[in-house]
Amino acid sequence: MKKKKVIYKIGRNLLLYQKLENLLKYINYHNDFPTDITSLEKKNKILGISTLGSLITNLVNYDSDKVDKPIQIDIGTSSDYYKQKEEVLVMILRERNELVHHAANKFDMSTSKKCKKIGKKLNNQKNKLLEEILFFQKRYESINSCKKDFQNYLQSDEGKEKILEVMMQNYYLNHPITIALAKLCLTSKNTRVSLSKAGQELEEILSNEVSLIKKDFKSLKMFMIETKIFNIQKDKKINMLYYELNDDFKDLFK
Predict the structure, then answer these.
(1) pTM value?
(2) Using alpha carbons only, what angle is made at residue 190 by residues 189 and 191, rounded to the nearest 5 degrees?
(3) Among 67, 72, 82, 254, fewest CB within 10 Å belongs to which?
């Protein structure tokens, strides 16, 4: 085997490493897709300078259970989906670093026999790379397919309704009336507060907001029901309304 053929195979493998790296960047980007412009720009910048090693580390440590978004694209990726690839990816990284940084010193191409031995090693390396590229190519295609499905969903009546629901939920959660009502609950000894008492306190500290609420929702009670953040109950013995935070929202206001 000639020296030129070995050099060709080195170049071929380096291109395959680059292809794998690009696939990992794409998958890392979509595993935890940012929902705001600042995070999006930051992630683009980080991925742009990420090495193959850091991409592999991020991938095998990816935990889908920690991804908390109001609307998510489910591509069927469990927390240990990529973990199974850790051993082979670490080996690929080691071989890639050896090829890039030490090939000139380690590859003795002084004879045809030695070139043949190096060529065989490079072919084995190529086969392993192609196997992993095929694996991650399927994930790439799966993500693209899900993105198209998600785009169709967003354009559907159901999707538009969901977007509106999420927007309204964020509006309610950040509304000063909601925050004040939640604070009253959390500072109350019984974790529940008289609705009339809450109304009086709100009139003192947020009179303008209370007026707007009554205009848009007719009453404070109707606003609270609409938010789905509060649970309103009636004490029949004393004929008085009380409210408390629903369990799903308690941690958000602590």
Answers:
(1) 0.59
(2) 95
(3) 254
